[in-house]
Each structure stands twice: as C-alpha cells, then as structure tokens.
Specification:
- The chain is of the alpha/beta class.
- 47% of the residues lie in helices and 13% in strands.
- The chain has 22 helices and 12 strands.
- It has helices at residues 2-10, 12-15, 46-82, 84-99, 102-113, 117-128, 130-144, 147-154, 159-195, 206-215, 224-227, 229-252, 326-334, 360-363, 378-381, 388-396, 402-415, 432-444, 462-479, 490-496, 514-519, 524-531; strands spanning 282-295, 298-311, 315-319, 341-350, 353-354, 371-374, 450-454, 482-487, 499-504, 507-513, 581-582, 588-589.
- It has an 8-stranded mixed β-sheet with strand order 6-7-8-3-9-10-12-11, with helices on both faces.
- Strand 4 and strand 5 form a beta hairpin.
- Helix 3 (46-82) packs across helix 6 (117-128), helix 3 (46-82) runs antiparallel to helix 9 and helix 17 crosses helix 18 (432-444).
- It is elongated, with a radius of gyration of 33 Å.
Length: 600
C-alpha cells in the first residue's frame, strides 16, 4: 500500500493529465475519461490533486518523523547511557511534553507559528519526539547493562566507541520501527491541521483537499463521492501501510544481525616513559577504601576501609561469601561502580600513580591498557554479533592501527591457546573454556600490568577450571602479570594465589600468604570457610556450616561484624570492633579472640 502511494507521489507529473492548480474542466464534473475523479467547484482536476497531495502529505510526514526520531534517539542515547542528573533532566522534559493534551498542543503551536511547510514539519516533530525518546531510552538502558557492553567499557573503550559499536547497532532497528510509527502519526496530524485550516493553503495535500471540500459545501452535493472519499481512502491506506511496515520491521529486527559501520577512532597510547611516575614495587596499592551505595533507606556501606597491595608478578586473591564486598572492591578499583555506588574515601595507586577516588572518567585512561578486567561470564562478555578475532582486534585498536591490531589479536589468541583456525569463530561456536580464553586474550591485548579477574571460572567444569588456572599461572610467569582475583572458591584460590585476603561485611578479616592462611587460619570465619569444602585426601569428616545470614549493611555496626555468626564470640565482640593487626611476618587478622585482646 505504501509502495503504491509513494510511486504515485514520485511520478505524479507523468501520471496526471492536468495541472492540479489549473482550471481544466467544468465545475463539479463527475468522473469521466478526461477527469478520472471529476473536478471541484472551480474546475480543477481532483485526480491530479490526489496525486500531488500525496507528495506533500508523505513528505511532511517523513520529514517530521525523521526529525522527531533523530531528536528522540539522541535524547535516549544520552539519558539512557550516561544516566544520573542528565537522565533526570531529559526525562522530566519528556514527561512534560507527554503531559500536555496531544492534539490541543499541536493546534496551539500551529496557530502561533503560522502556516508553511517548514512550520508544519517542525510543529509535528516538536510534539511527537518525546514518545520515541521514552521507548528508545529503555532499550538503551537494557543494552547498556549487557555484559559484553560492560566488558567493552572495562577494556578501556571510550563512551563514544561503546555507543557507536555496541549500543547503536542494537537499538537502531527499534529506532527504525519508531520512525515508521512516527511517520504514521505525522501524516495524520498534517491532514488534521490542514483540514482545520492550519496547513499551508498554497500547497496541495490530502488535508487541504478535505479542507476545501468542507468549506465549499461538497457534502451538500454528489461531489463528495469523488472529492472527499478518495483522499480519505488514501489516508487510510497510508496509516495501515505504515502500521504494517512498523510491525514488519520489529519482527525483522534482530540486533545480532546488525553490523556496525567501521569508523576511524583516535588511538590513545600508553603514557611515554618520560611521563611515567616513579616506579614502585607494588603494581596496585589500595589505601583505606570506602564504598557506599545510596538506597531509599539510607547509605549502604559495601566496602569499609579496605587496604591491600598487589606486587609485580604476584597473584592476590580476595575471597568471601556473596555480599561480602569483594566484587564491589574490584569494580571500585576499575572505576566501574554501577548505579548509585561511589567511592567516599580512600585512594588507589596504580604503578606509582595516585588515582585518588577512582571514577569512570578518572580511570578510563588506563582501563584496557595498564588495568584490565576478566569478567565472570565469558558468553555474556562477548558480543554474539562479532567473531572472536574482531572483538580482540577492537581491544587492540585502543593502542594500535588496524593492521598492527589484527596481527596482535592473532598473537594473543594463540598465546592463550586458541588455534588459528578458530580465530574467526563466533562466541556460540566455542566451548565455555575457549570463550574464557578469548576474554583473557582481549584483556592481554595491550600488555597490561594488572589483571583483575572476577570469578573467572564460575560455571565451568572442573577440568576446564584446571586448564584456565594453568593458563593464568603460565601468563603470570611469562608476562610478569600482577593478578587480583575475586572468587568464593577457596580450593581454587589456594592453588592459584600467592596472597589471600578474606572479606566479610565489607572489611578484610584476615590476609597473608596463601599457604599459611590455608594451613592455619586465624580468623573463625576463615576456618569455617575452609571447613565447608570437602577434602579429596584423608578420612571423611562432617563439613562445617556457618549459621545465620551474611551482613547486609556495615553502616553503624559497633562491634565485630562476624560476631552474630561466630562460634568463638565473647561479650566484648559485641561492642568492640577489631582492627586488622599484623604479626610482622605478613599475616594480618582482625579478631579479638585470635589476637588475645578478649578473654576466652
């Protein structure tokens, strides 16, 4: 239906026999061979006006829809991706536009700004942009939370690159559907304005045809059959055609099949040696870090005064139950805290440079270069629309041109054990272990000094876990990587790490050499965690269990945070919060009973 209307509009000068504005026959002539739809009260050919009217109606509808969706899409991208105060301001404006009576607003604006093609287009766009903005914003927020988008940001991709390569391709098909729906509404609004006399009287459209038919009493004669019905049917066909086209686009639009347009982006290389800060023994130093989340019931403290260091070539593990704050600690170091999370105090030092309170913008220069993340779910961290090679190349292009980036991508994929024949595979064509290796290859693309691994073997079978463990150790030895690994799997951590930090309630309760902590845990929480895993050697024993629930919020806790669940707790544990004390040999423990500060 739309094709017929568009073809008629484009070829109107060839199809129509008469000039739509010239007198070509007797007024009120019925349809005949020379005038297929008869004439109006001045003798103008109505068939020619129907064809040329399609030009104006479809042109105004298309232009207004393009402008409205362009504005709405821009608002949706900015509000949905950046969130925060920008989102609040834009969405209040959207709410304000949608709150006004729709058609009344159109009439008022059209009457105020006058009658012309440009005015009509702008008025319609100004009224209908808010609805696409609201719909597309929700999609942008959804795509923004996809693991492969978060992984791209953690690898150091700039906001503009993430939007252009990962967000736009996923949302663009939905924007196309919104354009079709907006064009549908715009055509109807133009016809309504013109019918009310608020359109451009010097331009023929379906709406102006209906307007002149009404003011010149066509309904009082038989002329209404050929003067009113044809443009009415044309409008109906346009509305139905746009509706069907919108449904078809929505059904066809599969974001995984979209292809992003390659574009040149500036390379941000590592700082030169002259700009490097003074070398330090530790690659990462975290000093008294505090992280809070804003909630309706008040601030929730997830990390409370954590300090740790990761030396060059060292593997440090952070272990604890879910909710202990270990992942929040890693995301704070990366400057990737989501939602309402923020670092309230403390500092992070990376390779001798003080990052201060890590924020997205402040850490962006080193993410993907000196500081990288290996997320826990490789399938979600990889974009299903691109091959593994293409995604590693994308990471390499942060510091290299295309040819060099491609060569480096092949190199790191082979380094992590993926055969060259599989470099062009898509994520769904690889096993879980191969996907995890691909994510590690992306992390190693730009020769980082610190790798943060968040639950890197979760969901993998034990054989694959052992292979990933072996790979990480080989990479550490070969490349001199410093690794900060987050996990709740103590046996895995015991085989992989050099140092171990046990977290509970947002604080480190015990830390030290992994062998010492595993062999002789000093904190009751560490003992219970180790006792909850079965041993493959020795006699059978009953597994330990930790009664009660983990601490939800560390804010306002005066005593030991583990005291309600601790089998060794004494009265003083309720009122005195233990500090992390060292024994001078690398072991630190925060326990009143273990340190001898409280009577047994």
């Amino acid at each position: 239906m739309l094709a017929v209307l568009v073809i008629s509009a484009v070829f109107a000068p060839l199809i129509a026999r008469h000039d739509p504005t010239a007198v070509s026959g007797v007024p009120f002539s019925p349809p005949s061979g020379s005038h297929l739809l008869g004439t109006n009260d001045t003798g103008q050919d109505l068939f020619a006006q129907l064809l040329f009217g399609a030009r104006s109606s479809l042109l105004i509808g298309t232009l207004a829809a393009l402008l409205a969706v362009a504005v709405g899409f821009a608002v949706a991208l900015v509000a949905g991706y950046y969130r925060g105060g920008i989102e609040a301001a834009f969405m209040r404006l959207v709410d304000l536009v949608l709150a006004f009576p729709f058609f009344v607003l159109v009439i008022v604006l059209a009457a105020f700004f006058g009658q012309s093609l440009l005015t009509t287009t702008l008025v319609i766009a100004a009224v209908i942009w808010a609805r696409p903005a609201r719909v597309l914003r929700s999609q942008v927020i959804k795509v923004r939370q996809f693991d492969h988008v978060v992984a791209a940001r953690s690898m150091g991709a700039s906001n503009l690159r993430v939007i252009g390569r990962h967000v736009l391709p996923r949302v663009a098909p939905l924007a196309a559907a919104q354009f079709v729906r907006a064009a549908n509404v715009a055509v109807m609004i133009e016809a309504s304005l013109a019918f009310l006399g608020l359109g451009d009287p010097g331009r023929i459209s379906w709406g102006t045809t209906l307007y002149f038919a009404q003011v010149r009493n066509a309904v009082l004669t038989d002329a209404w059959l050929w003067w009113i019905v044809p443009p009415g049917l044309a409008l109906t066909a346009a509305v139905i055609g746009f509706a069907f086209l919108g449904f078809a686009i929505e059904e066809w639009a599969d974001p995984r099949l979209t292809q992003a347009v390659a574009r040149r982006i500036p390379r941000r290389r590592r700082p030169s040696a002259a700009s490097e800060a003074s070398p330090t023994k530790a690659v990462l130093e975290v000093h008294d870090l505090h992280v809070e989340y804003s909630t309706p019931s008040g601030p929730l403290r997830a990390v409370d005064g954590v300090s740790l260091a990761v030396g060059r070539g060292q593997v440090v593990g952070v272990v604890g139950e879910s909710g202990s704050g270990k992942t929040t600690l890693a995301m704070a170091v990366l400057g990737l805290l989501g939602g309402s999370g923020r670092v309230t105090s403390g500092s992070v030092v990376l390779n001798g440079r003080d990052l201060g309170l890590p924020k997205r913008a402040g850490v962006a220069w080193c993410r993907g270069r000196e500081l990288v993340l290996v997320p826990q779910n490789a399938m979600n961290a990889l974009n299903p629309a691109y091959t593994v090679l293409a995604q590693v190349v994308e990471a390499c292009r942060l510091t290299r041109e295309q040819a060099e980036a491609t060569a480096r991508a092949h190199e790191v994929l082979e380094l992590v054990g993926i055969d060259a024949a599989r470099h062009g595979a898509y994520p769904h064509e690889l096993s879980g272990g191969m996907r995890q290796r691909a994510v590690i290859a992306m992390a190693l693309a730009n020769q980082p000094s610190l790798l943060v691994a968040d639950e890197p073997v979760t969901g993998l079978d034990v054989v694959t876990q052992a292979r990933i463990l072996k790979l990480l150790l080989e990479l550490r030895n070969r490349l001199g990587l410093a690794i900060l690994i987050i996990s709740h799997d103590l046996p895995f951590m015991a085989r992989l790490t050099d140092e171990l930090a046990v977290m509970y309630g947002g604080r480190i309760v015990e830390s030290g050499p992994t062998a010492e902590v595993s062999r002789q845990p000093a904190h009751p929480y560490t003992r219970l965690l180790l006792g909850s895993f079965p041993s493959l050697r020795g006699p059978k024993r009953r597994l330990a269990s930790i009664t009660g629930d983990p601490l939800d919020n560390a804010t306002g806790v005066s005593g030991c945070r583990f005291q309600p669940r601790c089998p060794d707790a004494v009265d003083r544990c309720c009122s005195c919060q233990p500090t992390l004390e060292g024994d001078g040999e690398g072991r630190r423990v925060a326990c009143l009973v273990s340190s001898g500060e409280a009577p047994a």
